[in-house]
Design goal:
Length: about 280
């Protein structure tokens, strides 16, 4: 049994949230630069260039790439041979988020009660933690500060199995069309297919964090990703919703076995930044 101290978890998660808010992934930057060359709209080109410049400033000055620094979401793989010592595991994560958002001058966007009081917690906690127990003695963290301009545009549909591939395509494209400029395009579209309502939603959220340019290992789903991306980019929404061919940078689909009577599909939209960071301890 390997012991991992509370403070190591706290410091690791803190650094991940600072990094995710300040530094956009190289895969996103590369795709944005490619899109400048292929975008047909002049205003679209200007917007893409401004996004790239904004990200450079954020990285160099260590300031938030976007004023909406999101709700802290973590996908954690906890090795069954690892033992957390020195404090509570969940509190280590929440303390990390607390320190990152206060010390890093990141906007605190969490309210304690979603319906009635809606009072700000003033430290961006609590975090949302998705925990998976895996073999080994390490802990892997994949974190994302999820902004709600894009989160609010997400959608769920319980399709019938008979709706098939065409039904899935139509739902994804229609969701993006309805979202329009609201999620700050160009966007990354995460899609979860199968499982149950909550499983499909988790698949979709995690799919937004896949590197742009990487496709589902199943060639059928990979083809579907490419086809839907082409359909979305023919909508004409474009960068910032002002018209153009670069509405989405990627469509990432994940799937899971489901019930014979069901075909759950969730679309989780992420703005162009697709902020995330990961580490293993």
């Amino acid at each position: 049994m390997r012991e991992i101290h509370f403070d190591i978890i706290r410091q690791t998660v803190k650094e991940l949230f600072l990094k995710a808010n300040y530094i956009i992934g190289d895969d996103i930057i590369v795709k944005l630069k490619e899109s400048v060359q292929t975008e047909e709209s002049e205003s679209g080109k200007v917007i893409l260039e401004q996004i790239i410049k904004n990200n450079e400033i954020a990285k160099n000055e260590r300031i938030a790439a976007c004023q909406d620094t999101g709700l802290a979401v973590l996908f954690v793989k906890l090795g069954q041979e690892a033992k957390v010592v020195g404090g509570d595991f969940n509190e280590a994560i929440n303390q990390a988020v607390r320190e990152a958002y206060i010390e890093g001058y990141l906007r605190k966007s969490v309210v304690d009660d979603p319906l009635f009081d809606r009072k700000n917690t003033n430290d961006n906690t609590p975090a949302i933690i998705h925990l998976e127990i895996v073999p080994g003695d390490k802990i892997h963290f994949l974190v994302t500060p999820k902004g709600f301009g894009s989160e609010n545009m997400s959608a769920l549909k319980m399709l019938k199995p008979a709706d098939g591939i065409e039904g899935v395509k139509e739902f994804i494209v229609e969701t993006v069309k309805k979202a329009g400029p609201n999620p700050c395009p160009p966007i990354v579209v995460g899609v979860g297919i199968g499982g149950t309502v909550e499983k499909a939603a988790l698949l979709a959220k995690k799919a937004t964090l896949r590197r742009v340019g990487e496709h589902n290992k199943d060639p059928r789903y990979a083809r579907l990703e490419k086809e839907v991306l082409e359909k979305i980019n023919r909508l004409g929404i474009g960068p910032a919703g002002l018209g153009g061919r670069t509405t989405a940078l990627a469509v990432n689909i994940e799937y899971f076995p489901t019930h014979i009577a069901g075909l759950p599909v969730v679309v989780n939209i992420c703005c162009h930044a697709a902020r995330h960071a990961e580490a293993e301890i």
